[in-house]
Amino acid sequence: MPETQNNVLNALDVAKTQWYHFTAIVIAGMGFFTDAYDLFCISLVTKLLGRTYYYVEGAEKPGSLPPNVSAAVNGVAFCGTLAGQLFFGWLGDKMGRKKVYGITLMIMVLASIASGHSFGHGPKFVMGTLCFWRFWLGFGIGGDYPLSATIMSEYANKKTRGGFIAAVFAMQGFGILSGGIFAIIISAIFNARFKAPSFALDPAGSTVPQADYVWRIILMAGAIPAALTYYWRMKMPETARYTALVAKNGKQAAADMSKVLQIAKAQTLIALCGTVPGYWFTVFLIDKMGRFAIQLMGFCMMTIFMLALAIPYNHWAKGNHVGFVVLYSLTFFFANFGPNATTFIVPAEIFPARLRATCHGISAASGKSGAIVGAFGFLYLAQNQDKTKTDAGYPPGIGMRNSLIVLAVINLLGALFTFLVPESKGKSLEEISGEDQQAQQPTQS
């Protein structure tokens, strides 16, 4: 490994925590803030979509989206995310992290705005247009996953790298929280203006016309943080590890990181408080406990809590809601203080620089394929099995119980596969991937 290149990489590994680290967390984290807002805000507006476009007086569930439409609206973005993770992960290794980073943001901005402008003649056209733009929104979001993780891992030092990557991922919690708060505020403003509390159905069996604006505003608001982040992402230099190890330009890598390490100033930091506790347990403990321990613990605890929800499901369904909520919350706590975070962090560390974004994209896409199964499969299975079994004389909830059991088995499999994952705590990226040994081998003339 050339001396200049080696000095740059060593400087990154041993650098003390500086303002540029936090700047990178905020810039990359705002992408995840936007990702979470865009992906999860759709669940906040589906009920309003049903009331606006599918209200049929006398129907079993008036004002509800048909199951196939609901599954499409909620799940199509996950399909786009999977495709984006694979494509942009590969492209990030070919073109560089910085160039592709801006492309993904622009797709997110344009698709968010276009989602709010989903018009057409009749519900089918509106929902079809919405699904089209939600797919492309997910495509841009998918690219943000491998690129944000890879950039943060290549900027960080080896002592606190896991915590920094986890902090980027933890910004999802703020995005989900902001989506709920913004939806409440917009609804309250329209309710006060048009005297239609909660946009409830009026006696004529329809919502007020202005209700159609609410879901559009909520969806388009996702473009704002993405647009604000674009400028700062374009000011970030390419990561020194990509420049040195992939682009083979050690002098440029040294110049870029010299500027970042010495001239960098703090930007406005978002106060990191009030989000999902599991995320932040990971942030503070992952570089102490290690990735393996946290992931194994998370999978095991999720298995236990899933079974605790599934086996006595009828007990919870008969009105014991507090206990159900507690167990369900603990399941999510250990998902975030567990595999939800570690499966984002580890792929950004264990692969060589020339393949890091590609492999992270594949890993992230594998996880997103599970989300697609959940969005389309488990909901459909639970609803249909509940109806079939109830008609046949079984107690209600049998489909949901079986779905929880399946999830428990999947979590148990995840725990077993964890034993195949190498521990990366405290090691340099080159040490983990073996690139330090490859660089020391003499080249063939």
UniProtKB/TrEMBL annotation:
Cited InterPro entries: MFS_dom (IPR020846), MFS_sugar_transport-like (IPR005828), MFS_trans_sf (IPR036259)
Keywords annotated in UniProt: Membrane, Transmembrane, Transmembrane helix
Natural source organism: Coffea canephora
Pfam families per record: Sugar_tr
Membrane topology: Multi-pass membrane protein
Catalytic activity: phosphate(in) + H(+)(in) = phosphate(out) + H(+)(out)
Transmembrane segments: 20-49, 69-88, 100-119, 125-143, 164-193, 213-232, 266-286, 292-313, 325-348, 360-382, 403-421
Name by which UniProt lists this protein: DH200=94 genomic scaffold, scaffold_4633
Listed Gene3D superfamilies: MFS general substrate transporter like domains (1.20.1250.20)
Limits of the Major facilitator superfamily (MFS) profile domain: 24-426
The family this protein is said to belong to: Belongs to the major facilitator superfamily. Phosphate:H(+) symporter (TC 2.A.1.9) family.
Keyword Transmembrane helix assigned: yes
GO cellular component, one term: membrane
GO-annotated molecular function: transmembrane transporter activity
Subcellular location(s) of the protein: Membrane
Record SUPFAM superfamilies: MFS general substrate transporter
